[in-house]
């Protein structure tokens, strides 16, 4: 698959954009006209820069308001085109995008437009150039690729072809199967963009909200499959207008774009069995979270040990060569790393005590690792002692580690090789069974990056975005989960540091892991057991319980129990949900205990009450409220 | 006019919200239920806090999914209502908002709903409470205030009334005159919200984009006038859901809300001659910019003097008691203040050399000042020497000063009293006539504040928002202008510091004045004259001129002239526009010279090229690009 991206998709000045595009691994680049016009240098210089970076200039765009112009505008329009042809020849690209006319001066008529394109094709042919026609979703007369194709067909000129753009077709819900009958050589280039499903004016939506394939909600893969079915083997090129991307990191957005195309190519390869040069193992099926590892030092480890004991964990094993302890309860494994050298120590030195790594158990760790690398994930390796396991690992949110383990390296075996069991008094556990979910907090403008990362590598889907109301601002929450519920990661995007989430990432960040939710099969028994161990549950306002009783029509006895134990309650069409929180540890890390009685959500409607309680608990006397 | 605001409209925790609302000058507050539920204290405590701050609790809201429920849900719904009545009595408010049912379980039927409300009215009456019914724009059966009113009419109970909300009525384009026939005593409260005109899903629009009356594009004044025409004399209450406000400054957003209501009251008073207790002078008619004043020190003043000379200004007068020089050209007056004490010095000490003040010439400065203060503007006074003028002044963007002057204190007279003319060689001017516009840069989330400030105090309007594409991100631009063009202020809202605008406010800010645009009647003569004085025009990419020639079909001779002088060109349906820029001074301040041949805009489509050129010029060798 040949990959390309339009310069308009990323921030920066033209040379900076080209460098980032090359570095991200694209084969080609579309030069967006304004980027060229603002550049203080000849077209030939732009061409040279691109070629020096190994980039083909796939397209010069856009050329607007061309077809169907009445005289005398018509001849001026052709003159304009000739000027653009001059630039293209100097740039070193043979293809220009003509988008459908939106001018109020334009006249309609398929044959008129076809005849204009035939003439333009003649002129282009004289210079060895080609013209591609694209239907804008809001074009005055032509707003459907089927009509654009009919014009191209009637123009009947080898130098005139069709340009398809997934946004323009999918935003209008045009059947993508209409693409399958187009001869592949008549499709000059294919542009791709996704977008979140928000019902709004098409032009406004397109100009501000487009995003990378897989980052939005449009069926871009089905679109690309229809294109591939024609036999098309040209460039797939991203053309993304997005306010956030325009202000974001040039390199990071370019990297996301490349990942999105590779993932799309993988989807297309799989569903169409087309050979488009993308070959990697399938998405990794996650069995669960193998372990979560904290980086800390000897002193702070004492406090963490106390907290874990209060949660019913017991120290089960110690590492044979490193200062790492393994705590266990049910299927939950927590590693506490106080090794005074190495990556964990470096992470601790920067961020203080935090959960810097997690292990995801998958069907085939080696295959998952290969897939992750094919999708531009950053590998991580560190020295291990002789005979110890080198577990494949990649960098996740904030540079935190994600270890990949499988049945060939299950945690049991891994424990046996690297860890030695310890005997200690067993005070009995608190009924915690599994990690229900891991909650990661990150800057809002990194949400799309990591949602794409998880969904492209692991067999997961993302849930719709939910707004969490923090007294300091809105936090956007979205979940990556799989069908079985064995992998659930909630992602919270913070826009300012006055929110609890924003404070956490400003002060801590690291892996972004802000809380761990453990499951129990009996929330009340667990609450009692925790209480007896000295665990202090987060105090929830009594006002909450009066409302929850009335809202759900709860038995007053149940709501009294909930209130007594500070348990939050929610219900969906599948069942009930119970949530119990710890207070915060450090700059906002906390634990949650949940019981699901069929419920499938994450208690989003309770978040406002949990946040208010956490903020109240965190606020030291005398510290101004908006510092938290 | 009695003013109120819902707690949901601003950020913060409940006590913080109440304090900010009281401080902003509101008479009352609506308690949004979630703010109460998250608060860890009794309803009576909330009531006491509000009363201690002098706030009446005008409403408890919302109560959802009430009317038209089938059995057995119906009786549970009434039970829920009784629980809310308990809270209301303890809070100390007699009014609850019931919004139209959105539940899929609800049954339709006007009479069924009316009968439910009659029963609820009976129950409320027993406790001395009242129930207000509001039609949500997306209600399942009731989405129009006319239908809600019919239900209230048929409920036929003195404790059941109507609640009107401008957003719900105006978003559906319901004729506001339908309000005029409603008896005022049946309207229990009126909620107000504006919104920008963006065509999108009503619920999404309402939940994220509402803003204060006058900050958006809806005809909220016409709505309020229709309400006032009924004889309604109750609360006008703001209910604003806005993502930006939720993350913004609690106090600043509350203050904006209060200003918006006072301004709305003023509009209603004027158009309906209703006595609603708002009385202030009319909006001030601006004649032009009297002067712009720079704060600097003796050393930097030398550089500024050189720049002003190169622009054709001459030093015309010196202040009698302060170290302030007056430079003049045409009607343009620039003051340069190097006084080593006082406000200007303090501003200079913080921000360095910058334009910290401007004087707006109005019809009646004293009246404009009274109006500004009535609209919560912050007054500014500083000591003057005996016999000198105390010019009324208010604080504008970033705390910068806006002096108000008029024919009783014109700059001529002001100059004569406070200034002494100096004789110097007159090298002739460069043809600069007037200040065409002043450009202020500010953080994007302060845009609405200052647009409201200007349009409420001065007889101006705001233009639609335009996106300016900076290589570092999108800058939102909107203009405040009057009919004659004598006052034009362009406002640029920056979202990050990687843009030229964002860099300027991060490094400089102060008054936010980032550039001054002077007008000439002959741009080419002025360009030549400036060149001869040693003025260095900002170099524009030659690529721009090839495009502009083709795009507008310019005579090649003209485009050659433009290119030779680095003049940018634009055209609208009214005429032509020519723009010439200086390089940047310090952290991004610059001058612009424009010639308007009938043109009414501001050359927004040229901004991308101007910004690229300014950034290129600012970038010292070796400094990474994204530091600029």
Concise account of the structure shown:
Chain A has 21 helices and 26 strands.
Mind explaining what this structure looks like?
The structure is a homodimer of 628-residue chains. Helix content of chain A is 36%, strand content 25%. With 628 residues, chain A is of the alpha/beta class. Chain A has 3 domains: 271 residues, TIM Barrel; 136 residues, 2,3-Dihydroxybiphenyl 1,2-Dioxygenase, domain 1 (Roll); 196 residues, 2,3-Dihydroxybiphenyl 1,2-Dioxygenase, domain 1 (Roll). The C terminus of chain A is likely disordered. Chains A and B meet through helix 2, helix 4, helix 19 and helix 21 of A and helix 2, helix 4, helix 19 and helix 21 of B. Chains A, B: Pathway: Aromatic compound metabolism; 3,4-dihydroxybenzoate biosynthesis. Chains A, B: Catalyzes the conversion of 3-dehydroshikimate to protocatechuate (3,4-dihydroxybenzoate), a common intermediate of quinate and shikimate degradation pathways.
According to DSSP, the number of beta strands of chain A is: 26
Major sheet of chain A: size, sense and barrel closure? 9 strands, mixed
- Kindly name the structural category of chain A: alpha/beta
Largest Cβ-defined interface: A-B, 60 and 60 residues
CATH hierarchy, class of the largest domain in chain A:
Alpha Beta
Q: Give the overall average pLDDT of chain A.
A: 93
Please bin the fraction of helical residues of chain A.
25-40%
């Amino acid at each position: 698959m040949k990959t390309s991206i339009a310069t308009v998709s990323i921030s920066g000045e033209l040379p900076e954009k080209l460098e980032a595009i090359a570095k991200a691994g694209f084969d080609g680049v579309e030069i967006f006209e304004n980027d060229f016009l603002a550049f203080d240098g000849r077209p030939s210089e732009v061409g040279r820069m691109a070629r020096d970076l190994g980039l083909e200039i796939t397209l010069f765009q856009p050329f607007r308001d061309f077809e169907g112009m009445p005289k005398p505008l018509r001849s001026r329009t052709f003159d304009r085109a000739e000027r653009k042809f001059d630039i293209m020849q100097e740039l070193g690209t043979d293809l220009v995008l003509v988008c459908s006319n939106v001018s109020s001066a334009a006249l309609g008529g398929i044959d008129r437009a076809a005849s204009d394109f035939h003439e333009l094709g003649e002129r282009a042919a004289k210079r060895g150039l080609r013209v591609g026609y694209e239907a804008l979703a809001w074009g005055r007369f032509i707003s459907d690729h089927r009509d654009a194709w009919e014009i191209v067909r009637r123009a009947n000129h080898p130098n005139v072809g069709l340009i398809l753009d997934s946004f323009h077709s999918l935003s209008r819900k045009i059947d993508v199967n209409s693409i399958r009958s187009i001869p592949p050589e008549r499709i000059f280039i294919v542009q791709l963009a996704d977008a979140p499903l928000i019902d709004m004016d098409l032009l406004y939506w397109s100009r501000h909200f487009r995003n990378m394939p897989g980052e939005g909600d449009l069926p871009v893969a089905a679109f690309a499959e229809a294109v591939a079915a024609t036999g098309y083997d040209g460039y797939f090129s991203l053309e993304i207008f997005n306010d956030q991307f325009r202000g974001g990191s040039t390199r990071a957005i370019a990297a996301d774009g490349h990942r999105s195309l590779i993932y799309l190519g993988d989807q297309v390869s799989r569903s169409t069995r087309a050979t488009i040069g993308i070959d990697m193992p399938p998405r990794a099926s996650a069995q669960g979270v193998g372990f979560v590892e904290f980086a800390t030092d000897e002193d702070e480890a004492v406090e963490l040990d106390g907290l874990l004991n209060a949660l019913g964990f017991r120290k089960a094993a110690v590492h044979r060569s490193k200062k790492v302890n393994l705590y266990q309860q049910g299927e939950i494994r927590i590693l506490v790393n106080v090794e005074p050298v190495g990556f964990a120590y470096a992470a601790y030195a920067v961020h203080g005590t935090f959960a810097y790594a997690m292990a995801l158990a998958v069907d085939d760790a080696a295959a998952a690792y290969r897939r992750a690398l094919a999708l531009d994930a950053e590998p991580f390796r560190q020295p291990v002692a002789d005979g110890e396991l080198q577990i494949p690992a990649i960098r996740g949110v904030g540079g935190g580690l994600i270890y990949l383990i499988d049945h060939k390296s299950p945690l049991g075996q891994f424990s046996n090789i690297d860890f030695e069991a310890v005997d200690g008094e067993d005070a009995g556990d608190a009924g915690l069974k599994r990690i229900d979910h891991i909650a990661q907090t990150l800057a809002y403008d990194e949400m799309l990056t990591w949602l794409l990362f998880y969904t492209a590598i692991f067999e997961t889907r993302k849930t719709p975005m939910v707004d969490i109301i923090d007294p300091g601002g809105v936090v956007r929450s979205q979940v990556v989960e799989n069908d079985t519920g064995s992998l659930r990661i909630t992602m919270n995007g913070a826009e300012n540091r006055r929110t609890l989430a924003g404070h956490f990432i400003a002060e801590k960040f690291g892996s972004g892991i802000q809380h761990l939710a453990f499951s129990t099969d009996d929330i009340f028994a667990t609450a009692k057991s925790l209480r007896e161990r000295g665990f202090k549950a987060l105090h929830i306002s009594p006002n909450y319980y009066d409302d929850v009783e009335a809202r759900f029509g709860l038995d007053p006895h149940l709501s009294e129990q909930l209130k007594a134990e500070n348990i939050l309650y929610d219900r969906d069409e599948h069942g009930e949900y119970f949530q119990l929180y710890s207070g915060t540890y450090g700059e906002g890390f906390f634990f949650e205990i949940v019981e699901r009685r069929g419920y499938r959500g994450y208690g989003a409607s309770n978040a406002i009450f949990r946040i208010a309680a956490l903020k109240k608990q965190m606020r030291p006397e005398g510290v101004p409220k908006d510092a938290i």
